[in-house]
Every structure is written in C-alpha cells, then in structure tokens.
UniProtKB/TrEMBL annotation:
It holds the Pfam family T7SS_ESX1_EccB. InterPro entries: T7SS_EccB, T7SS_EccB_R1, T7SS_EccB_R3. The keyword Metal-binding does not apply. It is found in: Cell membrane. It is a single-pass membrane protein. The chain crosses the membrane at residues 37-61. This is Type VII secretion protein EccB. It comes from the Bacteria. Keywords: ATP-binding, Cell membrane, Hydrolase, Membrane, Nucleotide-binding, Transmembrane, Transmembrane helix. GO terms for molecular function: ATP binding; hydrolase activity.
Amino acid sequence: MLTRRDQVQSYQFLIQRVTSALTMRETDPLTPPFRRFVITGFGSIVVACIVMAVAGIYGLLNPGGNESWRTGDQVILERETGALYVFRDSRLYRAANYASALLLLGKNAGTIDVSRNSLLGVPRGPEVGIAGAPNGLPQPENLLHGPWSLCSRRVTDTNGAHLASTVLIVGDTAPGRSLAGEEGFLADNIETGDEYLVVNGYRHKITDSRAAKVGLALNQEPLVQVGSAWLDALPAGVDLAPMPIPGRGGPSAFPGALVGQVMVVRTVGGPPQYYVALAEGLRPVSEVESALLFASQDTAAAYPGGMPAGPREIDPAQAAAMTLPAAPESGPEQLPRTRPRMSGLAAPDAVVCGSFQGVQSPAPATIALGAALPVSDSDLVTARRTRAGTSLADRILIAPGSGALVESMQGTEGPGTVQLITEQGVRYPLASRDVVGMLGYSPSDVVSLPAALVARVPEGAALDPAAAGTVLLQN
C-alpha cells in the first residue's frame, strides 16, 4: 500500500505539472517555472547593493560635494545646525536672522539646504545682521488685510484695584453692537481720571465738566471705564467745553443784549437756530455750543440780573439783520451739532471696541459696545508701556503663522511708514518701500492704518539694508 509520504509526493508532482501547463504550456519542462525571474531579481539586488556600497565609499572619501551655494544668490541653511549664511566676496557670513540675510542679499532670495561638510574649509567672515530682526517672516498669502480692532474693559486685580485690560485684534472686526449715527457714550480714563465724550469715532475731552454735564444733561449717564491705550488710538476731537467769548458782559450791537448772552429763533416746522451775542452782532452756534455756553459759570457775567431759565427768544427778522458769519468748521473732529443719543449699553465695566478699516474710511473707527472681551490661547502679552511712556495694548491677538504689512499714517494725505507685524506681536519699521520687495511682498499687500492705532503694538528693530551688514560678533 502507498504510504502517506508517497501520497504527498504524488500530490505535489500533480500540482507541479498543472502549474507548468498553465505558465509554460508544457507539463514536463526541462527547467522549473519562474527560474528566469528569480535569477534576474536576485541579480538586480546584488548590483544595487554594489552601487550603493561604491557611492557610500566615495562619499566617505570625498565629503561635501555640493557647490551650488557659491553663486551667492541664496540664503544658505546649514542642515545640521540651522545656521544661516550669506556667501559674498569668497567668504561665508553668518546672518543673525532670516530678515538680515535677505536684506544683506538685497532681494527676495530662496533658501538652499547645505550640509556642514559642504561648507568645510570655506573662509568665514564675522557674524552680521540686525539684532532683534525677525527670524521668520509670514508668507505673502498669510498676510492679514482686514480691519484692526482694539477692545478695552475694566477688570479687577488681586488687590481689588480697578484696571483696564486692552486687547488688539489684528485683521478682524470687533464684536458687539456697533453704535449707529451720532450715538455715543461717556468714557473715563481709568489711569488718569480724564473724561471724554466718544461719538462718531472721535474722543472729545471734557474740560468743563459742569457745563458739559448740565448743559447736555449727562449727569445721569454712566461712565465706561477704559484704558489710555484704547483712548489714545481714537483721533482727538475738539474739547467738549464752552467756546471762548471775548469781552463777555460788555455791550453788543444787538439791541438790548450783552456780549455772551445766548439767543434762539424758533420757527414752525424747523429746528431752532441758536446765536451768541458778540460786540459786532449775533454769531450762529449749534445746539451743543449754545447748551455749553448757557451752562457755563462764566456766562453769568453776561446776565447781571441773574441767569434766566433759558435762551432769549428773538424775532427771525431781527436775527437776520444782525447775523455775523458762522465760525468755520475745520473737519469731522468738530463737536456734534446736536446732543448725541447716549447708548443704553454703556456701563462702568462694559467692553468697548473700536474697529479701524483704514485712514480713508468715512469714520475713523466703528465703535461697538456690549461684547465679551476676546481671549485666545495664542494671546501675546506686552509690557503695557514703552520706555518713552506710550501706552501699548496689554495683549495682541493675531493668528499663528500670519502677519500684516501696514502703512502707519499720521493723516489721510502723504506717505507713512511701512511696518511689518509678525506672529510674535511685534512691529518692525521698514527703512524704505524697497524693503517690501526684498522681503518677498508686493505694494498691494500694504494696508493703511492710523499711526495712533499701530503704535499700540510693541516696536522692534528697524529693517534697514544698510544695517544688515553690521558686525555683531567678530571671528
């Protein structure tokens, strides 16, 4: 009888014949199937190993064969250490940072990764660059072109004292409800005690508290406590105070009036027109100006018999005959002509934000009240104040990896200073507009913003090509 072993061998022989018939069309070939493929594959592996061994031996005997960096057109990155070099005048100069390397080359150059061995034996120059310049720059596509927002809120420290916390949001609008029209509120600088009327994006300092609060009925309005950094970012308007009246209490050309007295003409279907008596006649004033004058303690000199209950009503024809030219108004920073509508969201600890679209916007800032103070894990904390005393935003909120290229404008006309803001929440002034291209950006990337707002960001080193070659460490 057949043994188990004989049966297994018979089965294997049968399978071999079937396989040969399918692959080679012959049941009993002289050579086993796939022999050629096996031999070819094994030979290829042997040849590859020999080539790799030869290449490795050559690399050990001749290290550092990369010479493409010698063109001097690229920033050289040493692979093992991350050190940056610039090759010029047949020497390698180590750059203090990436921005310095680009400025030293004078153009937006690429970066080449080179091994340490490839740089062996090359003469070295001193370490050069701008100390404190950025070592990383935002990519052009990551620059933020949106509005900036500055928010402030009263907080309490561990000792129970009230402080103002200010957050600058780069490239995003402020939360909260925007104030409409001539809606405004009273602000109290928690650091100095000065009070302001904030309306139409301007801050009007209250220099005569009694005249302002009595004349405009502001005594019961809450004061929103804010910090200097927030107030200083708003453009300053005309002080909220009575206009000066020379010769108050003296005779006026208007019959029966003394200099400094306030008059009003009321007509059916139209708003009242207010005047103040001067020596030469009547000067038209706004409702706000007349209210401030009438509530001023100095105006009592124009009423020897005591202050009346309100302005004196006069005939329109009389007023027209004695009207002087109105005082010229120089711009939107003037006081509002009518009493502002005070916001119902105002409170001592309310969050107030201002969004700045650009210097060409109709209003310098859009004011919003009633939102939560923005917070983020990537907030950057500042020193709160510069050595020169400029108030900084307490925290800078900017998306990681992003940045901004802004033109810091003192007004709406003339060129400003272009500055680069990095993800570290630091601004770097550019020595000229040519530096924009050296850093890899285009003029269209620049956004114009008020200088008072940009100044809330801590300032870093100026990016000047002339300073990029400054020796920092001699060999």
